């Protein structure tokens, strides 16, 4: 766990739906996770066409990756979420499901949510990129 993580929303910047504009870390080590995809243990994309099922798999994969380095969602200092959609409603639904998941604390930090045109695997609808302070 990080020695000290401070999350800040400075005056003069807009209010956020739960994330912080700035995350300051005073720690010696960080873990940069590869983008976590909705890929199951068999190497196949889980839940083709089902964003909720894919989010659940991304959460499970992210939790396993964090545990592997002795970290948890509260140690995440940066997140980037990529959703295969250009609809704000879909992006908002993905954000809400992630925030309400076991990984939810990861999204109280500096976070970016993007709608994209294509992701790396066929049928992939979401990917989450995390950095954690150790």
Automatic annotation (TrEMBL):
InterPro entries to which the protein is assigned, alphabetical: RutC-like_sf, YjgF/YER057c/UK114
Signal peptide (UniProt feature, chain positions): none
Highest taxon listed in the record's lineage: Bacteria
Record protein name field: RidA family protein
Taxonomic source organism: Actinomadura harenae
Gene3D superfamilies to which the protein is assigned, alphabetical: RutC-like
Pfam family, one: Ribonuc_L-PSP
């Amino acid at each position: 766990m990080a020695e000290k993580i401070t999350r800040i929303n400075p005056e003069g910047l807009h209010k956020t739906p739960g994330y912080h504009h700035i995350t300051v870390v005073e720690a010696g080590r960080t873990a940069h996770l590869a983008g976590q995809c909705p890929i199951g243990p068999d190497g196949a994309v889980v839940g083709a066409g089902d964003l909720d099922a894919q989010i659940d798999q991304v959460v499970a994969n992210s939790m396993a990756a964090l545990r592997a380095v002795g970290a948890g969602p509260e140690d995440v200092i940066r997140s980037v979420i990529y959703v295969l959609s250009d609809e704000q409603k879909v992006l908002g639904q993905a954000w809400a499901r992630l925030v309400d998941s076991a990984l939810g604390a990861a999204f109280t930090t500096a976070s970016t949510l993007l709608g994209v045109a294509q992701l790396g695997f066929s049928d992939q609808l979401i990917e989450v990129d995390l950095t954690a302070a150790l």
